C-alpha cells in the first residue's frame, strides 16, 4: 500500500525538480545567448548606421572633404569613429554581383556568393560557409553618379557559437546529474513525508484493534449471561439477580466506552467546539469534592481540597468538569484503602495551576510518557484496577484545547501527582 504511494510521491517530487532544473538551465542558456549576440547585433547596426548616415558625394568632392575633415579648422585631426575590426564590409551591385570587400580580400566568399548574398534588407541573417558561421546585415546606399548599391556588413560568430555549444553541453550534463539527484531527493522526501502518515495509520490500526477488543469483552459477557437466562425460562429475577446485575454493569460499561470512543473520534476531526466562558474554578472543585466525599469515604479513603483563593477561569466549564472527574477517578482507582487524594488549584500572574495528587500505587518511570495514549494501561494498573485506558486520552485532548501543559511526577509505591498549567488569557 505505502510502496505504491512512495513511488508516486517520488515521481511527483522528481518531476517538480526536473521541471525546475530545466527551466533554470533554459534561462541560463537563453540569457547567455542573448547577451553574446547583443554585442554582435549592436556592432552590425552601428556599422550599417555609419554607412547610412555618411553623406554620399562625388569621388573628387569626397576626397577633398576627407582631407578637410582630417585637419579641421583648428588643424587638429578629429577622433575617428570606433568600429569592430572583426566586421567585414561587402558591396553588391544591382545585379547582386559581389564588387569588393573593403577590409581585405578573402577567398572564403569566392564561389559562395549565393550563400552569402543578403536575402532581406535591414534584417539580421545567419549563414554557414565551410564550417564558419556568420551574422550579417545589409542596407541600400545611393552614390551620386554611380547609382544604388547594397552594402553588407558581416561578422564571424564562431567563437560565440562554440561558447554556446560548450554551455549547452555543460547544461545537459548538469541537468542529467540534476535528474539523478532529483530522483534520489524525491525518493528521500517521499519517504520522509510518509513517516507521519505511517505513524497515523499504525496508530489508527492499533486504535481500531484495541477498540474492537474492548467492545468485544462486554458484548461477550452480555451474550453469555443472556444465553444462561434463556436456558432457565422459568427462573425468577431473584434467582438470576447475579446474571442480570452483570448484564446491567457490562451494558453501562459498554455505553461509557462507546461514548468515550465517539468523543475521541469527534475530537480527532475537530467536530467538538469549546464553549468557553468565565466561571469560578475553586467553586467547581468544592462542588466535585462534596460529591466524591461519600464515595471516597465508602472506599476507606479520604479526599482533601486546597483552594484558598478565588480563581476565575475562562474555559469550557463542562469539559473542565469532565477533566477533573477523569483525574479523580484515576486517583481513586489506583489508590489503596486508607489512601489520600489531594485536589488543589492556585493562580499566578499569568497561569492557573490545577493539581491532583494521591499516595497510591504510582507509575513506573518508563510508563509515564505513555499514560495519555489511547487504551494504554501499565501492567501494574491492570493487576490493581479495571479500566479502558481512554480517560486520560480525553483529558489530554481537553488540556490541549485549553492550551495547557501537563507535568506528571510519580514513584512506584508512593503515589502520583498530575499538574496542569493553563494560561489565564484564554480566547472566548
UniProtKB/TrEMBL annotation:
Residues 210-426 form the Histidine kinase domain. The keyword Electron transport does not apply. GO terms for molecular function: kinase activity. It catalyses: ATP + protein L-histidine = ADP + protein N-phospho-L-histidine. It comes from the Bacteria. The chain crosses the membrane at residues 12-31, 167-190. It is found in: Membrane. It is an enzyme of class 2 (transferase). PROSITE patterns: HIS_KIN. InterPro entries: BphY/WalK/GraS-like (IPR050351), HATPase_C_sf (IPR036890), HATPase_dom (IPR003594), His_kinase_dom (IPR005467), HisK_dim/P_dom (IPR003661), HisK_dim/P_sf (IPR036097), Sig_transdc_His_kin-like_C (IPR004358). Keywords: ATP-binding, Kinase, Membrane, Nucleotide-binding, Phosphoprotein, Transferase, Transmembrane, Transmembrane helix, Two-component regulatory system. The keyword Transferase applies. PANTHER family: PHOSPHATE REGULON SENSOR PROTEIN PHOR (PTHR45453:SF1). This is histidine kinase.
Amino acid at each position: 500500500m505505502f510502496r505504491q504511494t512512495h513511488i508516486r510521491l517520488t515521481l511527483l517530487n522528481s518531476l517538480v525538480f526536473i521541471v525546475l532544473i530545466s527551466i533554470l538551465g533554459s534561462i541560463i542558456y537563453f540569457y547567455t545567448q542573448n547577451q553574446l549576440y547583443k554585442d554582435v547585433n549592436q556592432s552590425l547596426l552601428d556599422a550599417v548606421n555609419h554607412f547610412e548616415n555618411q553623406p554620399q558625394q562625388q569621388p573628387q568632392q569626397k576626397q577633398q572633404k576627407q582631407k578637410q575633415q582630417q585637419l579641421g579648422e583648428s588643424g587638429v585631426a578629429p577622433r575617428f569613429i570606433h568600429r569592430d575590426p572583426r566586421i567585414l564590409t561587402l558591396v553588391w551591385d544591382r545585379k547582386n554581383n559581389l564588387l569588393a570587400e573593403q577590409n581585405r580580400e578573402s577567398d572564403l566568399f569566392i564561389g559562395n556568393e549565393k550563400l552569402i548574398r543578403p536575402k532581406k534588407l535591414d534584417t539580421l541573417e545567419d549563414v554557414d560557409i565551410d564550417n564558419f558561421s556568420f551574422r550579417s546585415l545589409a542596407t541600400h546606399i545611393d552614390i551620386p553618379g554611380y547609382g544604388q548599391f547594397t552594402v553588407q556588413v558581416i561578422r564571424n560568430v564562431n567563437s560565440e557559437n562554440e561558447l554556446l555549444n560548450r554551455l549547452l553541453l555543460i547544461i545537459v550534463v548538469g541537468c542529467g546529474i540534476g535528474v539523478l539527484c532529483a530522483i534520489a531527493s524525491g525518493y528521500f522526501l517521499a519517504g520522509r513525508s510518509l513517516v507521519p502518515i505511517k505513524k497515523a495509520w499504525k496508530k489508527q490500526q492499533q486504535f481500531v484493534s484495541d477498540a474492537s477488543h474492548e467492545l468485544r469483552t462486554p458484548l461477550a459477557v452480555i451474550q453469555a449471561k443472556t444465553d444462561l437466562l434463556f436456558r432457565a425460562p422459568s427462573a425468577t429475577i431473584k434467582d438470576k439477580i447475579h446474571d442480570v446485575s452483570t448484564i446491567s454493569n457490562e451494558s453501562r460499561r459498554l455505553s461509557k466506552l462507546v461514548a468515550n470512543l465517539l468523543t475521541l473520534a469527534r475530537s480527532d476531526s475537530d467536530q467538538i467546539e469549546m464553549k468557553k466562558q468565565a466561571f469560578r474554578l475553586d467553586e467547581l472543585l468544592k462542588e466535585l469534592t462534596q460529591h466524591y466525599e461519600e464515595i471516597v469515604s465508602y472506599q476507606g479513603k479520604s479526599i482533601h481540597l486546597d483552594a484558598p483563593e478565588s480563581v476565575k477561569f475562562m474555559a469550557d466549564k463542562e469539559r473542565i468538569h469532565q477533566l477533573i472527574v477523569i483525574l479523580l477517578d484515576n486517583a481513586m482507582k489506583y489508590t489503596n484503602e486508607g489512601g489520600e487524594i489531594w485536589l488543589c488549584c492556585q493562580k499566578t500572574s499569568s497561569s492557573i495551576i490545577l493539581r491532583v495528587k494521591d499516595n497510591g500505587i504510582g507509575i513506573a518511570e518508563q510508563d509515564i510518557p505513555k499514560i495519555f495514549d489511547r487504551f494504554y494501561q501499565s501492567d501494574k494498573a491492570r493487576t490493581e484496577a479495571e479500566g479502558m485506558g481512554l480517560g486520560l486520552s480525553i483529558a489530554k485532548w481537553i488540556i490541549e484545547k485549553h492550551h495547557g501543559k501537563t507535568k506528571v511526577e510519580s514513584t512506584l509505591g508512593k503515589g502520583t501527582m498530575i499538574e496542569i498549567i493553563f494560561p489565564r488569557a484564554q480566547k472566548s
